Amino acid sequence: MQFKSPFSRMLQAKTKSALSETRPSRSSPLGRQLPLRSILVVPFLLQISAAVGLTGYFSLRNGRTAVNDLAAQLIARTDQLVDQQLVSYLSLPPKVNQLNADLLQRRIVEPDDADTLSSLFWKEAKTYGQLDYIALTLPNGKYIGAGDWLSEPGIEIDIVAADGVGRTYSVDSQGQRQAIIDQYEYFPKAEPFYYQTVEAQKPMWTLVLEQFDTLAQNDPVYIAANANLPVYNSANQLLGVLSVDLRLSNISDFLANLELSQNSQVFIMQRNGDLVASSNGQPLYQSVNGEPQRLNALDSTDSLTQATTRALQERFDLQNIEQEQSLILPLQGQRRYLHIRPWRDADGLDWLVVTVVPESDFMAQIQANTRTTILLCLGALAIASVLGLYTSHWIVQSVWQLDRAARAISRGDLNQQVQKSSIQEFSSLGQTFNQMAKQLQESFETLEERVEERTQTLSNTLVELQQAQTQLIQTEKMSSLGQLVAGVAHEINNPISFIYGNLEPAKEYAQDLILLLQHYQSECPQPSPVIQAFIQEIDLVYLQSDFLKVLNSMELGAERITEIVRSLKIFSRQDESDVKTVDIHEGIDSTLLILSSQLKAQNWRPAIEVIQDYGDLPPVSCYPGQLNQVFMNILANAIDAIDESLERAGPIAVPQITIRTQATLNQAIIRIADNGLGIPENVRVKLFDPFFTTKPVGKGTGLGLSISYQIITERHGGQLTCWSKPGQGTEFAIAIPLTLPTR
Fold first, then answer.
1. How far apart, in whole angstroms, are the C-alpha atoms of residue 487 and residue 522?
2. DSSP letter at 654?
């Protein structure tokens, strides 16, 4: 749609004027010059030819120099990746050891608590999948460990007693020990990881090489780096030695996955030449007389590893290499780039990282690049003219597009979008046209959006005001009810206290009078006829036996009134508007007492049975009055739900409301359930929305559950949830923290 405003008409007139001024006349000398397409194609071909020639020349000249640069870059990148992996892989075990040491030193976990420690180690091994085994060895020889160092999958728990009897247990999904799956003899204090760490009195690494009969034939040897940490108490007494195993084959797997050149190789060895890891997948051990032993690089099954190690030992003392060294040596008939770098950590690891890169890997690539460059030069020369034609076509097309857009805007059609051109000047001109076309549209769209935003804001504000007003009224009602209840309880409490306090003396006086009357009867067995007639009239024998019963009944009634007054005071909580530590069960009982008249049998239904399945709840820090209001809302809704079920579906065998409480580690949970008809899902999801109610007009405002939700979630930082299914009743679950900070 075209909007013909005065501004649009003025813009149209100015645009037409500008176009008439810039369009050249047919008699202009510019029309007799060379075509734009020819001017663009010839320089383009010359530039392409010069660029192709220079590129080929410098490619051939710099080929040899690039080999050294590529080799250096590959070695540097490889060293960086290896260093990052070693730091990442080997830094985790000391951190886990330190974490467990803090737990032991702070007495959060006792060293001899095998159940807690084994479960803790199991969870850590499960969380940090790269850790093979986590263990604690005590000074008395007891050993607790968990991990997955066998070939069979799954984390197991090992417990070794002080006498050396060890047992392996299966574990459930929670990290708890189950059945014994193996029994053996093991003395961990005789192992190097224990006595060497105790002697050193500091964190250290030991290497583990061990063979197990239970392992599969294709992986019979377990080789690992063991991070050890002695743990002392505040009196500098040894609590034990913590250990974490890392399988060295994982480092070899990482090296094998490095993106090296085709014949390159990386291996890590100790100062004595024993292999730690290798990128070629060679084994890290050898069998000597049926026993596994560490494999020295000079005895490697890989000839390149042997030749490289021998060349290094001829030129360096491996024990004294302190700086990284780079060499170019002839190995196995070809030149190879050789790089050796020491790698250490704070806990005693001292390894050598060796990288070997053959020159032939790069020369083949350089030669391939040279051939590719020549082919590209010829191809570029062949298609230069085609590209020139296409380039000129793009430029002319951009001019035509801008011309069409300018003419459309001059006619008042502002819905024009000029496509972006690859030429900066044309692109800038197109953006200018697009901006002019959008300015009027954006101004009207912005105005409309602002009106809609203002309208929506006013609507939201009105709804919020209505909610706030209704919530304020509800809060004031509950406050007034609480004040009224507290006032009535106070007024009743004074006279009933007087009555209750005088009942005991009255009972004593009555007993004394009856005793005095009995003395009179014994002393004067023949009273006058008038007295005898009065005795018969008042039925003295029955009066004597019933008088004390009447006083006892009055005492029971006074106690009942006192209990009701106490419940009313507990429910109102007028003196506890701040956070208080209270008994939740008292609040529930007081609410039930207030609702007792609604729970009793009615003309249309029997009495509602209340099942109070209370758990062992500690005192809870909360806002007592507000929490009682939540109990009142939910219990009243449960009674209404049962009454509605009776009206709609007929009698219920036993109308019931079940109240269950329980305490978790840091929460108190109260569940209130009824056996009514339940709530459909489309209604259940709206229960906590303000003003939502299914009750008839005049019976509910729709704010009870909404306010209850705010009290539980916002005031107490808890959760209020509802479960219901048609025909299976409804259950509300309240979960609040046991301790609520005082605001």
1. 53
2. S
What's the CA gap between 423 and 415, in Å, rounded?
Answer: 23
Cβ contact 128:102 at 8 Å? no
**Distance (Å, rounded) from C-alpha 371 to C-alpha 497?**
112
Residues paired with 265 in a beta bridge:
356
Mean pLDDT of 63-91: 79
Determine the pLDDT at residue 721. Answer: 94
Spatial distance between the Cα atoms of 678 and 672, rounded to a whole number of angstroms? 13
Q: Retrieve residue 481's tokens.
A: 């009810």
* CA-CA-CA-CA torsion sign (13, 19, 24, 25): negative
Task: Identify the burial level of 358 via C-beta atoms within 10 angstroms of its C-beta, where 0-12 means exposed, 13-18 middle and 19 or more buried.
Answer: buried
pLDDT at residue 381 greater than cutoff 80: no
Mean pLDDT over residues 565-589, rounded? 71
Give the contacts of 468 (CB within 8 A, at least 6 positions apart). none
Query: To which H or E segment does residue 343 belong?
Result: strand 334-344
The number of residues making up the chain comes to 743
pLDDT 10s digits, 237-260: 999 999 998 888 888 888 888 877
In the numeric block, the tokens 């190995």 are attached to: 331
Q: Which residue from 482, 734, 743, 733 is spatially nearest to 629, judged by alpha carbons?
A: 482
Amino acid at residue number 462:
L
* Pair of tokens at residue 706: 């909404």
Per-residue confidence band for 3, with pLDDT thresholds at 50, 70 and 90: very low
Scan for tokens 């300018």, then name that residue: 406
For residue 210, which of 292, 296, 133, 137 has the smallest C-alpha distance? Answer: 292
What does the alpha-carbon distance between residue 435 and residue 428 come to, in Å, rounded to a whole number?
11
Q: Which of 676, 633, 677 is nearest to 655 (CA)?
A: 676
Using the 8-state DSSP alphabet, how is residue 699 labeled?
S
Q: Is the separation of the CB atoms in 292 and 221 below 8 Å?
A: yes
DSSP-assigned beta bridge partners for residue 343: 351
- Between strands 609-613 and 656-663, the pairing is parallel
Asked whether the CA dihedral 273, 277, 282, 286 is positive or negative, the reply is positive
Q: How many other CB atoms are found less than 10 A from the CB of residue 168?
A: 19
Convert 46-70 to b/e letters by CB count within 10 Å (16 or more is b). Answer: eebeeebeeebeebeeebeeebeeb
pLDDT at 32 over 60: no
How far, in Å, CA of 439 to CA of 629, rounded?
Answer: 58
* Position 96 confidence tier, pLDDT thresholds 50, 70, 90: very high
Chain centre distance of CA 138: 35
Please tell me the distance from the alpha carbon of residue 119 to that of residue 178, in angstroms, as a whole number.
12
The DSSP secondary structure of 397-439, one letter per residue, reads HHHHHHHHHHHHHHTT-----PPPPSSHHHHHHHHHHHHHHHH
State residue 470's pLDDT score. Answer: 57
Going by C-alpha positions, the residue among 125, 75, 135, 92 that lies closest to residue 345 is 92
**Coil, helix or strand at residue 184:** strand
For the CA atoms of 470, 476, 478, 479, the dihedral, rounded to the nearest 10 degrees, stands at: 160
Q: Is the pLDDT of residue 297 over 80?
A: yes
Determine the pLDDT at residue 434: 73
Q: How confident is the model at residue 185 (pLDDT cuts 50, 70, 90)?
A: very high
Binning the chain into helix, strand and coil, the percentages to the nearest 5 are: 55, 20, 25
As a whole number of angstroms, the distance between CA 70 and CA 237 comes to: 56
Question: Tokens 């009357």 belong to which residue?
Answer: 517
0.85 exceeded by pTM = no
Q: What is the DSSP string of 200-242?
A: HTS-EEEEEEEE-TTS-TT--EEEEEEEEEEEE-TT--EEEEE
In the predicted model, is pLDDT for residue 232 greater than 90? yes
Indicate the burial class of 106 (C-beta count within 10 angstroms; 0-12, 13-18, 19 or more). exposed
